[in-house]
Amino acid sequence: MAAEWPPGAHWHPAESRLEPTLLARGAWDRGTLQGRLLAALAARQIELDHGGEGRHCARLTVDLLRVAPFAPVAVESELVRDGRTLRAVDATVSCEGKLVARASAVLLRRGEQPPAAAWQAPEWEVPDPPDLAVDASPEATHLPLEVRSITPGGFRGAGRKRLWLRELRGLVEGEEWTPLQRAAAAADLANAVANSGVEANWFVNADISLQLGRPPAGEWIGLDVAGHVSEAAVAVAWCELYDQRGRIGTAAISAVASARPIEIPASG
Question: Which of 182, 234, 202 has its CA nearest to residue 60?
């Protein structure tokens, strides 16, 4: 049975910081903040301060430096370089006076598409989200997301996992999710789907690296596991990202094994 989520957004603006609501609580430890939301907030600040002017965020990397406690956050950005075709921006997310995440982004100037003839991998041919059942597994319902699995088993599938997801609540009160923010939040879930099999996931991701050839259109983001390499408690994993029009980019993470499987708490 799907969880009943309270109305509203994950964050309320409050002067120079953002106050979390219960929606922002971490899935594995309810006294923490979701790492995927820190990535989305970094993307939001970069867009607010340095977006527009025909710029497209082609790459966003977020380092998750420490577990963020359930407390207000301050997000700041800094322009590193502003050239004719390339704009480089850094951002920081701080909580209780400590740096919890740092981000870097490359924004490129949009223009006329050349007649490129580069090889491209085949597009996936999968059902649209409305044609699939809502995934009611614990992994799919522990966050305010709607998940529709394309492959059997959902997050605990034995083979290559594919799924659709969309946000059920807003990021910041009074604002709509932007395409970049949606992609940044979804990219974090590459860890959960690519670093696990039928058993629970053991890995905690230390970063998120998102590359977008174009911004996603619409609410739904598709994740298609593309690879996993692991040895000596260290793993890298990556997913291809889609919207309902087709491929939009990739999400990659690096992770370290925890002392025990990352099980979802029995109660909220």
Answer: 182
Average pLDDT over residues 15-32: 91
Which one, of 202, 208, 199, 200, lies nearest residue 234 by Cα?
Answer: 202
The pLDDT value given to residue 116: 79
170-172 and 9-14: which strand pairing? parallel
**How far, CA to CA in Å, does 103 sit from each of 42, 53, 56, 80?**
7, 21, 16, 12
Is 53 strand, coil or helix? coil
pLDDT of residue 6: 87
Q: What is the CATH number of the domain that holds 33?
A: 2.40.160.210
How many domains are contained in the chain?
1
Cβ-in-10-Å burial (0-12, 13-18, 19+) of 181 comes to: buried
Q: Give the residue numbers spanning the domain of 210.
A: 9-110+128-257
Instruction: Give, as one character, the DSSP assignment of residue 59.
Output: E
Give per-residue pLDDT as tens, 110-141: 999 998 788 988 999 999 999 999 998 888 88
Residue 115 maps to a domain? no
Q: What is the pTM of this model?
A: 0.95
Residue 2 belongs to a domain: no
